[in-house]
Specification:
alpha+beta; 13 helices; globular
């Protein structure tokens, strides 16, 4: 293998690594090739660990994008905060969580340091990005400074804000406006490195055009890095550390510049709930499937709903779960998807089936028991659920 071939193989390997997107548990990704059709993607179970997994971004032109959205990883109540979220979004996998908790009256300092959320100078939560750590810190400051009698309303408004379709659509429109030229430049760098450069070398040799080709790629990568920096600053002004780090990487590595538009998109909508992002991006059928899974996971989480033995932590998690359930129910009603319809019990697959798991929908021949796959979730009998639905109460 010659020098040119070795260089191209090395660049291709680096570029392939840049196409791997790390997705923490508790988050979902939405990917597209052209922007016309979006697809929901879960973090891979095989290519990952207990904290998350990888998804592969579209590696070939026109170089698609990957958006990441995640549920808020803390439980909030008018009394305090708990580093626990019962709803997992990722099937049977939940991220490692400490379930540490604090009363607001005991919190003297709230700060973020990189990806860490700090309470009283100690690490309370590790988030997925610098921007998300700032987002969580800002929310906690606002809640702590609110009079206790008004905190419940502020928390409910905060949850509802993560489901605000108008804000999601506006954010997506701004992202598209600021990343259009950047995406064009990223494709230009890809074509120059993996198509034009090999063709010129094969036709005319390496020595004659090496400096010219290197200069052309350098100009393209520099332009992409500058545009990325400006767009990132406009979309995420407080994430200076992340912005500067990627700027330097793009100036030094052309494969990173090829994913500049994708790097910008990954964090642009991460502070919104995946259900709201899905409503804007997915088709009706895909959104209905997502809504059903999110609602089921929120109402019937994997047991234990909170592993802490402290009554205060359990109370915070329970209040927060109920508030999220209220926010999701209202959101789905506005989307003309009644929660009772999404949570309707399945029909028995066999005459011998007497009960089912309300979370995973597995069916059982016994009338009472628990679903081991869902952590010991109590089963529901078919006739009891049907009677309850006829009474008009639905759900829990």
């Amino acid at each position: 293998m010659g020098e040119v071939e070795s260089l191209l193989v090395t660049l291709a390997a680096i570029y392939a690594a840049e196409c791997l997107v790390w997705v923490p548990l508790g988050a979902l990704t939405f990917s597209t090739l052209t922007g016309a059709r979006w697809r929901l993607r879960q973090p891979g179970a095989l290519a990952g660990n207990a904290r998350g997994g990888f998804v592969l971004a579209h590696p070939l032109p026109p170089l698609g994008r990957v958006l990441l959205a995640r549920q808020f990883p803390l439980s909030l109540s008018p009394e305090g905060v708990c580093a626990w979220q019962a709803a997992g979004l990722n099937g049977w996998r939940r991220p490692p969580q400490s379930a540490a908790w604090m009363h607001y009256d005991d919190i003297t300092q709230i700060a973020s340091q990189g990806r860490k959320l700090l309470l009283n100078g100690q690490v309370f939560l590790r988030t997925g990005s610098e921007g998300y750590a700032r987002f969580a810190a800002s929310a906690l400051r606002r809640i702590r400074q609110t009079p206790p009698a008004q905190r419940a309303e502020v928390i409910r408004d905060f949850f509802a804000g993560q489901l605000d379709l108008e804000r999601v659509a506006a954010r997506l429109q701004e992202l598209q406006r600021r990343s259009g030229v950047l995406r064009w430049l990223a494709n230009a760098v890809f074509v120059s490195v993996f198509a034009v450069f090999p063709a010129v070398v094969w036709q005319f040799g390496l020595r004659r055009f090496l400096l010219w080709m290197a200069a052309a790629v350098l100009v393209q990568t520099t332009a992409a890095a500058i545009l990325y920096y400006r767009a990132h600053k406009a979309l995420m002004p407080e994430a200076a550390e992340e912005r500067f780090s990627w700027l330097l990487t793009m100036l030094l590595a052309a494969p990173t510049a090829m994913r500049a538009h994708d790097l910008l998109a990954r964090r642009a909508l991460e502070t919104f709930h995946p259900l709201a992002v899905g409503k804007v991006l997915l088709n009706e059928e895909a959104f209905r499937r997502l809504a059903r899974e999110v609602l089921r996971d929120q109402r019937y989480p994997i047991e234990p709903a909170c592993p802490s033995t402290a009554p205060e932590a359990r109370a915070i998690a329970q209040w927060s779960g109920a508030a999220w359930q209220e926010a999701l129910d209202g959101f789905l009603l506005r989307c003309q998807m009644p929660p009772a319809e999404l949570l309707a019990p399945p029909a028995p697959q066999e005459p011998c089936h007497r009960a089912f798991c309300p979370r995973c929908r597995a069916q059982f021949v016994v009338e009472a028991g628990v679903c081991a796959e869902c952590g010991g979730r109590p089963l529901e009998r078919f006739f009891r659920t049907a009677t309850r639905d006829m009474g008009g109460r639905g759900g829990d």
